Amino acid sequence: MPAYTYIENISDLLPGVPEDSILSRTVHRGDDVKVVLFRFAAGQELSEHTASQPALLYFVEGDAVVTLGGDEVRAQAGTLIQMPARLEHSVVAQTPVTMMLLLL
Description:
By secondary structure, the chain is an all-beta fold. 0% of the residues lie in helices and 53% in strands.
């Protein structure tokens, strides 16, 4: 068994954009990182919450508004956000969005 994970195109791991919902799938679980792929329909949101560990958000496709503590930022394809543990955050999809979450 190889000591690595290879995914040629991460967007292929979830079906097309859901209608009025959010899909998520864990695509990798290791000792030091968990990778979860999300697909949002336009207008869908993850309401404000925290994570118990540091995290990275990487936006693969689409446009979103992300709240980080008291700040609001725009995210688009290529945006990377690093968050410390316990930072309050939320994500609102402005268009269909594919986002990768890495829990460290």
